Amino acid sequence: MNVEEHISLVSGNFTDKLPQFDCNCYILKDILQNWSDEDALLILSKVESVAKRNKSRLVIIENMMHTGHHAEEKLKSFLDLTMMSFNPSHSHLRTVDELFFLLQSTGFTDPQLYFTCTTYNIIETYPKTNQ
């Protein structure tokens, strides 16, 4: 099986109309942390509209802040400060609860959080009409 037959990498602007694909999964990696809440809501709304039509899921792979004092949380706090120093008005790590709120505000439901062995976590969710 050739991977290229099953994956489409798309360039463009998230605030424009998203292209339509017949796919079962949209993946956003390191995207939402670079945008303000208003722009993140716009991006998620656009993804929700195409995911709903295709009955697709959304997978978000990002560094996410958690409450706790573990070493990886301290590293994430450092990453958050570093990001804010480059772009104080937009870039920041969100908490899991903040990401869940953005998802639910744009029509996604039942987000599932998966932990990894890295500083990244994964959220999997579906538009409400896909259940």
TrEMBL record:
Pfam family membership, one: Methyltransf_2
EC numbers for this chain: 2.1.1.4
Domain of life per record: Eukaryota
InterPro entries: COMT-like, COMT_C, SAM-dependent_MTases_sf
GO function term, MF aspect, one: acetylserotonin O-methyltransferase activity
Function description: Catalyzes the transfer of a methyl group onto N-acetylserotonin, producing melatonin (N-acetyl-5-methoxytryptamine).
Protein name (record): Acetylserotonin O-methyltransferase
Organism: Amphimedon queenslandica
